[in-house]
Records
---
Amino acid sequence: DAKTTQPPSMDCAEGRAANLPCNHSTISGNEYVYWYRQIHSQGPQYIIHGLKNNETNEMASLIITEDRKSSTLILPHATLRDTAVYYCIVRVANTGNQFYFGTGTSLTVIP
Amino acid sequence: AAGVIQSPRHLIKEKRETATLKCYPIPRHDTVYWYQQGPGQDPQFLISFYEKMQSDKGSIPDRFSAQQFSDYHSELNMSSLELGDSALYFCASSLGPADRGPNTGELFFGEGSRLTVL
């Protein structure tokens, strides 16, 4: 599975949009981009995933570049409860293989 | 909705003792994954099972073993415990590749079992 690169930390003002970037320049054609987050010592929580089209759900939006080498997770109106470590993961969907978490981005939402 | 259940939530052991962690996947999920997360570290993949067979293997020590049973629950057995085994252990479950379409594959995680080795 392709590896990802994320900034180690970011801050965001409460109520503003949080834009979390991820580089995955070695992604292959059948690999999806998944985003998870982990709030302190809790189990990682699924946020969203996509293949090549932009995706939106009740939690976030996922913007994937046309060449698929990078993506951005957007939390449209960040709240204090969004403070967490955010992981970008690329993986072939139809396998029982591992999700490789990497180092993630520690997002701090500031009041 | 039912989630992934892990037990026990907390466990304290002495060095060289053994420990067993249990994971009950979401109903209908036939794939389970085990992760270890040390203090201040990212989750590290240990092992996964699909339909009771080992599917993938990560950085699982030889002192650890795991299996998936006929009801799809899984157990992680840890022997000769060391201080460095103190960590959060997460289990996750998903639908297996034969049971889902191409646009799925997300893992659902339990709340973890915290192992402390003294």
Note: The mean pLDDT of chain B is 91.
---
Amino acid sequence: AQKITQTQPGMFVQEKEAVTLDCTYDTSDQSYGLFWYKQPSSGEMIFLIYQGSYDEQNATEGRYSLNFQKARKSANLVISASQLGDSAMYFCAMREPFYNQGGKLIFGQGTELSVKP
Amino acid sequence: GAGVSQSPSNKVTEKGKDVELRCDPISGHTALYWYRQSLGQGLEFLIYFQGNSAPDKSGLPSDRFSAERTGGSVSTLTIQRTQQEDSAVYLCASSPDLRGSYGYTFGSGTRLTVV
């Protein structure tokens, strides 16, 4: 069965420093997609970055980059130059194939990031 | 609309009452998903729609839960005879298609409290 594991329940980072949030996944599918979402205390899920399993280059979106290591089945999120507004819960997710529940997302348990001034 | 809209944002209901949660997806998005996030838990998939059709309802936690979608747009999640364990944030997401390559846009959720 597909599974997402986030082993860091909580993390602290100093403002302006970089931080890496870990995510490992398990799947037998060759084609899959990996996502990172941010959930502030207000509750909305904000899409950050996407990596397709066939993408050879690591995805980047502004201060966010995804360190994709396919052989190790890891998809770590790197946030550069942390800001106070980055304090939130971060979820790693994997998309099921479309024929399985319409391509639903499977989520990890999340990592709560706190940015210190 | 510009984003996925969910209503109400908060709902407090008495145990045993029925509730309806509404999701208005982004215009043109054919795929719609419902998730549940319980306190301290990750997100649990409930059901998806392709157009107005929900091909697989096995993710719904019990037969007290039902969902429909009309006109390929608005979806309603109904919980009958609510129980305290139904208390959670219910999130709706939409996507242009089932491939999901364009990402899934989530609404702000409905926080349901059963007292």
Note: The interface with chain B takes residues 33, 35, 37, 42-47, 50, 52, 91, 93, 95, 98, 101-110 of chain A (CB under 8 Å).
